[in-house]
Design a protein that fits this description.
Layout (H helix, E strand, L loop, with lengths): L1 H12 L4 E6 L4 H6 L8 H11 L4 E6 L6 H12 L13 H11 L9
Parallel strand pairs: 1-2
Length: 113
């Protein structure tokens, strides 16, 4: 949930007006309605909802875990290299554009992060 907080707040800080967020966590409905989540996470859920209310257009989608390969690669790369802030704004890592191209062409079998 913390990643969702950081990403929505970062998108707002970047003055993005329209967002589409794909989440592979089955807890998305609980996060959005603040039901069935532990009390100590309610403040994070409120931060997400507050950030989402600031956008002109928001599309949230619950996706299958394996379909979010680029997000998984970015997260893994960030953790491996100990990036505590997104490094994508600085044109990103060299593998990212080729991976996006492969995904758009439907070549999901060749994930190479």
């Amino acid at each position: 949930m913390l990643a969702l907080v950081w990403s929505t707040e970062a998108l707002f800080d970047l003055k993005i007006k329209k967002v589409s967020i794909e989440i592979s966590s089955s807890r998305l409905p609980a996060i959005m309605s603040m039901t069935s989540i532990p009390w100590n996470l309610h403040h994070l859920s409120r931060r997400v909802l507050r950030a989402l209310e600031c956008f002109e257009e928001v599309h949230l989608a619950l996706v299958h875990q394996g379909s979010n390969t680029i997000a998984d690669c970015i997260a893994g790369s960030s953790l491996q290299q100990r990036h505590h802030q997104s490094y994508l704004a600085r044109s990103g890592p060299c593998w990212l554009n080729s991976q996006i191209h492969r995904d758009t062409m439907g070549d999901l079998g060749s994930v190479s992060c």
